[in-house]
Design goal:
The protein is an alpha/beta fold. The chain has a single domain, classed as SPOUT methyltransferase, trefoil knot domain (Alpha/beta knot), CATH 3.40.1280.10. It is built from six helices and ten strands. Helix 1 runs parallel beside helix 6. The two termini are 20 Å apart.
Length: 192
């Protein structure tokens, strides 16, 4: 991040003089990856990308599940939304937006230190905030409208994903993603 003053205000190409450089500006001591099922409405998924970027996320992966109704996302458009949100929030880090990937492929190939799956059924699950270790890499799976299937939940647990709850309310997919992002950022902001 740079602090600069404008030396040439030409509307075609503004010239600036760098006054101060901030290396690793607001660099966070953790990596947050949210793998989330695309919503039926592209607008709602785009809203998630925008808000998660503003709050602080390092990586977003559209997750194709058994109950996914939408299987295609426009990664280039999502990248532009993330870039705009990054600028809006005065962040120096643009999240990586991955191509859509199948549930099976993602869970079998991921090496995150902390792996969580959020779902809605009535099984006993602990709240995310009680399970997350600050300053460690985190991957959180958020399912589609209709939730993960029992098969997906079982498969995730075989791959060392910890079942978690994001609270007592049943949340829309995009809201669950924003809540998960907020919880992880709050846990880590209390540590610093």
């Amino acid at each position: 991040m740079f602090k600069a003053s404008i030396v040439d205000d030409n509307y075609m190409a503004v010239g600036v003089k760098i006054l101060e450089t901030f290396h690793e500006y607001n660099k966070r001591p953790f990596h947050l990856h949210i793998a989330i099922a695309p919503t039926k409405s592209p607008d709602r998924f785009e809203w998630f990308v925008e808000k998660a970027t503003e709050i602080g996320v390092d990586e977003i992966t559209p997750l194709l599940c058994e109950r996914s109704e939408k299987t295609h996302v426009k990664v280039e458009r999502l990248q532009k939304i993330a870039e705009s949100a990054m600028k809006q929030s005065v962040s120096a880090y643009l999240p990586k937006i991955n191509e859509a990937i199948s549930f099976d492929k993602l869970i079998s190939s991921n090496e995150s230190l902390q792996k969580f799956i959020a779902y809605c059924n009535d099984q006993d699950r602990l709240f995310l905030q009680s399970q997350c270790i600050p300053e460690k890499s985190v991957l959180i799976l958020i399912g589609p409208e209709g939730d993960f299937t029992e098969n997906e939940i079982g498969l995730s647990q075989k791959n060392n994903f910890i079942p978690i709850s994001l609270g007592n309310s049943r949340l829309r997919t995009e809201t669950a993603g924003v809540v998960a992002c907020t919880i992880i950022n709050m846990i880590n902001s209390q540590k610093t």
